[in-house]
Amino acid sequence: MSDPSPPRKRRTAGRITLNDVARQVGVSALTVSRFFNHPERVSEELRHRIGEAVSALGYVPNLVAGSLASARSRIVGMVIPNISGPIFASTIQGFSDTLARHGHQLLLASSYFSPEQEESAVRAFLGWSPAALVVTSHFHSEGTEKLLAETDIPVVEIWDYQPERAPIQVGFLHYDAGVMAARHLLERGYRRIAFVQNSAAGDFSALDRRDGCAATLRDAGLELWSFAPSAGSAPFEAGREAMERLMQETHRPDAILFANDNLAAGGLLAAQRMGLRIPGDCAVMGFGDYAFAEMLLPSLSTIRPPSLGIGETAALRVLESLGVIATEAPVQRLNRLECQLVEREST
Amino acid sequence: MSDPSPPRKRRTAGRITLNDVARQVGVSALTVSRFFNHPERVSEELRHRIGEAVSALGYVPNLVAGSLASARSRIVGMVIPNISGPIFASTIQGFSDTLARHGHQLLLASSYFSPEQEESAVRAFLGWSPAALVVTSHFHSEGTEKLLAETDIPVVEIWDYQPERAPIQVGFLHYDAGVMAARHLLERGYRRIAFVQNSAAGDFSALDRRDGCAATLRDAGLELWSFAPSAGSAPFEAGREAMERLMQETHRPDAILFANDNLAAGGLLAAQRMGLRIPGDCAVMGFGDYAFAEMLLPSLSTIRPPSLGIGETAALRVLESLGVIATEAPVQRLNRLECQLVEREST
DNA sequence: ACCTCCAATGTCAGCGCTAACATCGCTAGT
DNA sequence: ACTAGCGATGTTAGCGCTGACATTGGAGGT
């Protein structure tokens, strides 16, 4: 046991490290580290020389090692129901871009509204010591709630807006969207207003919109006519069916508010095929402002949710919580964004 | 200098570590590590006891430390032009979902077609020692090329398909899409065919499609009529302008192939307003099969690129390269997927 | 001349985990 | 009985970086 065991062979190949750069410049590794993380604490001259050595050597900082040492990372995890749908894509885009502008990375997973998938994504993300975590809506599995409660990193819930909950929230009230739609239809002089939702989808937020609409009509002394097409059909077909059925009624509605733009598009098409004039015979309104809304004939009046804004605002709140960008006041916990009424030809 | 300096205080709070679990069970840390990474090398009994301790303590493995130690991670980086557009969203979705099914995470950034932004994303990603990297198309900055060439992790290029390049590629030939469109129009009996592209966008792939179309017409003894609306206008407006201008020609075309569905939708709308019958007076075809294509009136014939398939296939190739899933043969380097002709009413 | 103070830089000890190697106990072959 | 061989587990030494603290040297005050 006298002589020390011979040095083991290195495991990693010739990766260029901080030390290589430091040696080249003739400073300590820590100074090079500062060059990346606190450049203002390095003298101008060294800053210059280190910068040159870095690009000469093609050094790429090992963020994994840095995160381990500092117990911090510039990764932010986001779990969202789906990526490719018309709804969330721009939220992701806004979030990702805003993060990137401030040197943070996005770790993304989709849950398809499954609390289990959400939990497994959150668990995996937590292993990366992310700087923050963003989840969609306030409905989580018990396990997720526990994980989120125990962590001390900032957590942001998006899309939903539930004032009584603890974490930072960025979203809007679907109820308000319903009110907005109802007011618009009333202003235009419509009185016999129907609400069409696809009963198949467990879309609870649509119910909030319907309630907002119904309440507004009630204040005006009117009653909302609720209609759900037969379960199980695709939104487009369901919208068509709804339009056909409603138009056969003796006291048919003079305006239909569809739960989303897909339904509305189906309705619009059915109306065309039936030879109805829109909005003359019946006004049509949707929700979502999907890309095609302005391309329909007639173009579709709808409510545009603040998708992009939610992504951007969520990123800002995250960055503020992390102290990456300044806030005068403490980080705003509740962030209620507004939907936007998009008036087009169909109303 | 006689006595050793007193132990420094710990920097991290009471995070639960592998050692905590190991102590609780009465084994070494390494055995717990094996429990997570090579469960088959741990005896059944220990597997059981460790599993219980893990959930009792609520232990979440620190992937950062693990990656540093093993110089490997289960993160895959993807750089894509944009997230929210109609084109790439489902590629991301397919990629992310396939990765997730095999326990890998997606690190995502968008480049907006800017080689500089792409390079900075690639650089940041490389700092995370990702398991693999996916970039869009073969056009990169010099710096990116260098970074990709020097790394030894698998690199996959998607969307474009350039047989002579080195990395794994998953994509399709835009030229073929043009051929496919031309054949369809010829079969339908159209002879005076125009191609409309938005000159504003530096959309080189559209040129490939045009070339494929032109070649096919030439084989049939016909010539493609190329038209570019005035620069700088939005696709929708540009499509409208193209339709109006082309229809004023004395020998007007009997079919128009638009460079994408947005242009085509504008064209369709203009035709409606001009009182033209589609496809009677003029057939209209697009490219992309955006969500609205089937909701237009008439519904739009178009070419559907294999967006989802590209994402899924890219993920499979990545996982194969990593040895996560089996391949009999060596990983296929060139993966040419097919577009799909979507015949609807407009032709 | 002396001291204080601050900015610039360095030393040292880990962060939590895993690769490589060592060891232990047992089965099986001779 | 003896040992080769194997599966299960332990020991050691980092992975590349950064936090806390130490040190240095010069500006500025008295």
Automatic annotation (TrEMBL), chains A, B:
What are the entry keywords?
DNA-binding, Transcription, Transcription regulation
Gene3D superfamilies in the record: 3.40.50.2300, lambda repressor-like DNA-binding domains
Q: Does the keyword Transmembrane apply?
A: no
Q: Which domain of life is it from?
A: Bacteria
Q: Does the keyword DNA-binding apply?
A: yes
PROSITE patterns of this UniProt entry?
Answer: HTH_LACI_2 (PS50932)
Gene Ontology MF terms: DNA-binding transcription factor activity; transcription cis-regulatory region binding
Pfam families of this UniProt entry? LacI, Peripla_BP_3
Which residue range or ranges hold the HTH lacI-type domain?
A: 16-70
Q: What is this protein called?
A: Transcriptional regulator, LacI family
